[in-house]
Design a protein that fits this description.
Largest sheet: 8 strands, mixed
Strand content: 15-25%
Order of helices and strands: EHHHEHHEHEEHEHHEEEEEHEE
Low-confidence stretches: none
Strand order of the largest sheet: 1-4-3-2-5-6-13-12
Radius of gyration: 20 Å
Distance between the termini: 32 Å
Number of domains: 2
Helix content: 25-40%
CATH topology of the largest domain: Rossmann fold
């Protein structure tokens, strides 16, 4: 039987709440925008391009780990589980594991359900007997899955080191939700490890300027959601490794003094003032294993690339 993918958009359309959140960030003592706003349709496509850049090692390192160790990972998973792909995007990473994991059901979760549609439709054609669901969900706020995601054992799949966007405290809270959501199964998660600054910083500030475009695109999103008048030419991309916090920081920095207006408000930005758009925390391998156990997972196993730059963990729920 040939199935068709289902789609549910559970992202609540509350434009006034979004606008309030964004304006509060712009007016904060240290202006900021949540990283989730980087991933509209254009932002998601730009991030796809980032993963192809020579400077961006995480995708290659993770792919090498899966290529070498996927059978060992699959052996630890319950049979006939539902594979829940968090931040699925183009679904490519999960698709490469299908023949090894053999999921009974596939749930692709992304903040943009529109971005999921073509990828999931293509994947359904390749695996016509596997029920598939595209779920638009802001799981950074709430990882509750709808009934349509199915019952039984679940394997949550969170590749690409996106867990690094969370502070350690936020990561613990997220992993506690993941533990509840993966009862009867577990979590397969990619984690970027601490390494030399000379390797880290170019991965977030590439020579071609794709990451800069990805970062600056959030200004267009701000204009759309808040009615602000950000001009791209006024802002430059800045990325650096904060060694004290063990994180890459991305910012947008004003090239000159500029006044930004939106309906009902405004802010004057001085030359050199920054808007903080993303963090990407880098972990020590043992520390992340300990975090998984604090979140309630009973046992963990990790695989790394040959250079020890990246790790994939299986955590039993």
């Amino acid at each position: 039987m040939t199935l068709s993918p289902q789609f549910i958009d559970a992202v609540q359309d509350k434009p006034q709440a979004l606008r309030t959140e964004l304006v509060q960030g712009l007016l904060a003592a240290e202006p900021c925008v949540a990283a989730k706003y980087l991933y509209d349709t254009l932002g998601s496509r730009l991030f796809e391009a980032i993963t192809e850049l020579p400077e961006y090692y995480p995708t290659r390192c993770e792919a090498g780990i899966f290529a070498q160790h996927a059978p060992a990972m699959a052996a630890l998973m319950p049979p006939a589980a539902t594979l829940v792909d968090l931040g699925a995007g183009n679904c490519r990473k999960a698709a490469q594991l299908f023949d090894v994991i053999r999921p009974a059901r596939y749930v692709a979760v992304d903040i943009s359900v529109a971005f999921l549609r073509p990828a999931l439709s293509s994947l359904q054609a390749a695996y016509p007997a596997i029920p598939m669901l595209g779920l638009g969900l802001d799981f950074s706020a709430d990882l509750s899955l709808p009934a349509a995601a199915g019952d039984g054992a679940r394997v949550l799949f969170y590749p690409g080191s996106s867990i690094g966007n969370f502070s350690p405290e936020q990561a613990l809270a997220f992993l506690q939700q993941a533990h509840v959501a993966s009862q009867g199964g577990g979590l397969l998660i990619g984690v970027d490890l601490h390494k030399d600054t000379a390797i880290l910083e170019p991965a977030y500030d590439d020579a071609l300027g794709v990451t800069a475009a990805f970062n600056r695109n959030v200004l267009l999103r701000l204009n759309l959601l808040t009615g602000s008048n950000f001009a791209l030419a006024d802002w430059q991309h800045v990325a650096f490794f904060n060694s004290q916090a063990s994180r890459i920081e991305m910012h947008l920095q004003a090239r000159a003094a500029v006044q930004v207006r939106w309906p009902g408000g405004e802010r004057q930005f001085a030359q050199g003032q920054r808007i903080h758009t993303e963090n990407s925390y880098k972990w020590q391998q043992a520390d992340f294993a300990a975090l998984l156990q604090r979140a309630g997972f009973s046992s963990t196993r990790a695989w790394t690339d040959t250079q020890g730059w990246f790790a994939v963990y299986w955590a039993q729920a």
